Amino acid sequence: MHLVKLGLAASAAVAVLTTPAYGQNNLRMAPEGSEFVSGQFICVFSDRYPVLPNGVGTEARFVARDANGQVGHVYSNTIRGFVVRASEQGVRRMLSQNPNLAYCEQDQVMRVDPLAPPPGRGPNKDDGGGGDSGTSSQTIPWGVARVGGAGDGTGLTAWVIDSGIDLDHPDLNVDVGRSVDFTRSRSGAEDESGHGTHVAGTIAAIDNDFGVVGVAAGASVVAVRVLDRRGSGSYSDVIAGVDHVATFGDNGDVANMSLGGPYSQALNDAVIAAAATGVQFTLAAGNSGADANNYSPASANGTNIYTVSAFQQGDSWIYFSNYGNPPVDLTEPGVSIESTYKNGDYNTLSGTSMAAPHLAGILLLGSVRTDGTVSGDPDGNADLIGVR
């Protein structure tokens, strides 16, 4: 895909249209200053003209002809929609001629935490990790201890919508058979970034005699790869991952999304619809030190959806964490978190990406309870600390 970079992400949220009227003006371009995928749009059918799940692909190809476009992903189990590769003019024409379309959004680019290691840089002592970290005896990361220690996650399932997972990491129980890749990588669901593997370890690293231990130790982790080796990906691929979890996830499973970018109604609506199936979603609030309402999927709200901010040791606020209640529901440890990493390794990272999987593990084990609040929350509404 061809990525166009214009600068810093916009801060203004896009208003949600609950009963959109059709027309060429229902094309939502990417926020000024954001990164977007050139010539690619996410389109959603209106609930005024219901499209059955098995008919979305056919209807998508029919309306895409008015844009002289090519259909990519088809979404049938969350939003009823599709991706079309076409010109802006073609998409406007398609919208004006098809009243069953609610809106189209320009596809955007999202990235994992900027606090993760840059591309090509593995764990080292400066990052607080190290190739032999925890290999001679098992370490209980401070975050896991703070939320109540490790519980038995045997038989439970967490879907990690991220950069993939190290599929043969010795400290993880990876469900390789159900893992999937939406980035079209030659490596499949294998994690080439390290970010997704780190998330998976906080959720479910095995309770054994080496490495680290996760909150729901030994739970099955399923890689839903939507980000490349640089930790970036398109919103359209991320929605495909959410749609996949809605299709194959079970009631009581947890899906973690430690990723984000500027506001997207399509992505938020997909998460809300997927959570309605009974899968619980944990969402990283973001690392911009700003209102989480301006970012997706962090700003999604609904049943079974939890947006998570980050705090540091001493139960105090960390400057980079996004804030705002709503959408933030709980806060979790997110500074100097040791966990599993790509290539069978371990590393210590910081970010709301590291906070969200703590809650994912708690939710796998059962209901969450609260244990005090953080100090120094910039919005004056101290976030509740979630523990098991």
Tell me about this structure.
The protein has 388 residues and is an alpha/beta fold. The chain is 19% helix and 28% strand. Helix 4 (195-204) runs parallel beside helix 7 (352-365) and helix 5 (235-248) packs parallel to helix 6. Residues 1-22 and 116-135 have low confidence and may be disordered. Residues 156-364 form the Peptidase S8/S53 domain. This is S8 family serine peptidase. Belongs to the peptidase S8 family. Keywords: Hydrolase, Protease, Serine protease, Signal.
What tags apply to this protein structure?
single chain, 388 residues, alpha/beta, nine-stranded mixed beta sheet, 7 helices, 28% strand, disordered N terminus, Peptidase_S8/S53_dom, protease, signal, S8 family serine peptidase
Summing up helix and strand content along with how strands pair, one would put the structural category as: alpha/beta
The major pleated sheet works out as: 9 strands, mixed
Mean pLDDT: 89
Give the tally of β-strands.
24
Region (Disordered): 112-143
Active site: 162 (charge relay system), 195 (charge relay system), 353 (charge relay system)
Keywords: Hydrolase, Protease, Serine protease, Signal
Family: Belongs to the peptidase S8 family.
